[in-house]
Every structure is written in structure tokens, then in C-alpha cells.
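Listing S7. Sequence submitted for prediction.
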Amino acid sequence: MNNWDVEFRLEEDASAARVIITGNWIGDMKDAHRLLVDVCHRWPAGYKVKYLVTCGGFIQFPWPLAPATGKRGHLVPNCVSTLVTTALRCCGSLLDDDLLRKLRDRTGCLTLGADSQEELGNQRRPHIELVTVLDLQRHEWYWTGKSYPTVSQEGGLIRITDLQTHFLDLEGERVMVLGCHDLNIFSPRARATTRNEWRRKIREDMLSLTKKNKPTHVLQHPHKTDSEKTWKTAFSGLRKSVPSVREFLSAGRWYRENNRGLPEEPRSPLEKVLETTKVGKTIDIIVWRR
């Protein structure tokens, strides 16, 4: 029996849907499969969207690399391709033929946040935060992931260094796909306070590519968003830097925990978080954890 209830909040002519999970979510593959099946089962008749977006870390896949040695030992040649290959295999088992058929009737593209860690919960050790986009009509997979780590991740995150992977042509639109903290590339506050040359280079390169690609839609994949202010400054910077953007949506979990891993009350009401993490019309799929 599923330990959640699913609520659909509909807008006519919505181009995208996002899955918002209220509560903790560890990315268990069986839970992820059951949830997507449940979403399809409850999907309202007469609605189809271009994009169905999940949160960062929607699934967790096994770490396939040997334990790292040395400070930068995890940054071995081809490690990203190895991680993507493992993640693709897990995504393939997640999306069986019956589920793919159901999804295809409801959306053109599905995004999945896919994480893996050498040591669960330790961001100082090697880990990766991937995002994949599956074009359901062509059955083509596109891969990107977090390129701009938080400070606590600097020593452990395997970054996606090919920034062009964030830009895709999907459903007749130019789409920018971001991991959670990648949105802070556009934050004026981050630009003003950073002292790291490599961070400055990532921002400059990403801004240059964004201006060149002129995305119309932005799909962000946070792990958690419990406050209406979490992405406020970065989102404001995005809108100023990239005027081509017509639609934006973010799909993080509405959940907060303290430094001991215990749940705490979210800082903003869910309605405020939903309102401030999108531009354009969406179908909001609220997963209420019991």
C-alpha cells in the first residue's frame, strides 16, 4: 500500500506538470516506480503536457566506482560516462513498457533527478547529481547534472563540466535544464561575493551559453524547497539575464530537516512556495506523505 495521497491542481492550457513531494524522500526505486504509476492512474482525462518534472534525487542509483583515494582521486577519466551508464540502466528498469506507454499518453518528456554517492549522506566524499530528460515519443535520453556545487560539496561533487548539456530542443522549445544549485549561477549576490576563479568561470561560461541559446523554458530540479525565499534572488537574476525565458518551473520537495536529520516545520506555506517557483501555467501534482 502506498504511503501517500496524490492531489492534482490543474490549470487550463498548462504546458508542464511538476511532482511536489511533501515530506522526506530517499529515492527508493520501487517507491519511484509506484509513484509514477499512481500519478498516471490519477491523471485527469483531457490533459496532456509537454514536460513532467520530478525533483532532484528522485531516484538513487548504486555507486559503480572504486573507492576514491587522495583529495581529487574521484575525478578519474570517464567517471561521468560510467555513472551515466549505471544511471541509464536503473532508469530503464524503473520505466517498464507499461509505464512508458502510460507516460507517453500524458506528457511528451519526463525528467528524473538521479543521484549517487560513494558514502550515503557524506557530501565530502565523491557523489553526483544527474538530471535526465527522456523524450517519450522518440525514446531518446539526454543527460546533464549539477555543474555549480554548494560550498559543502566542493570537495566531493563530480561536476558536469560540459555546460552545453544544459540546453536542449524539446517539444518545439529551447529548454534549459538545471540541477538545484545551478540556478544560483544567475544570482547577483553570488556574482558579487565569490572569490573562487573556477566558480567565476562557470558563471561566465553559463551566462555566455544562455545568451547564445536563448532558452524559452527553464526546468529546475531542486532536492528541497521549503521557503518562498530559497531561489528568489537567483530567479530574479535569471529573469534579468535571460529575457528570452517565458516559462520556468521548479519541482523540489517541500521538506525541511535540521542538522541531525530530524524533520522541522517548513519555513513557508506550500501555496507560497508553489507560487514563487514558477512562471507560466502548470499542473501541480502534490504528493502528500502520510
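Caption to Listing S7: primary sequence and predicted C-alpha cells for the chain studied. The chain has a mean pLDDT of 94. The radius of gyration is 18 Å.
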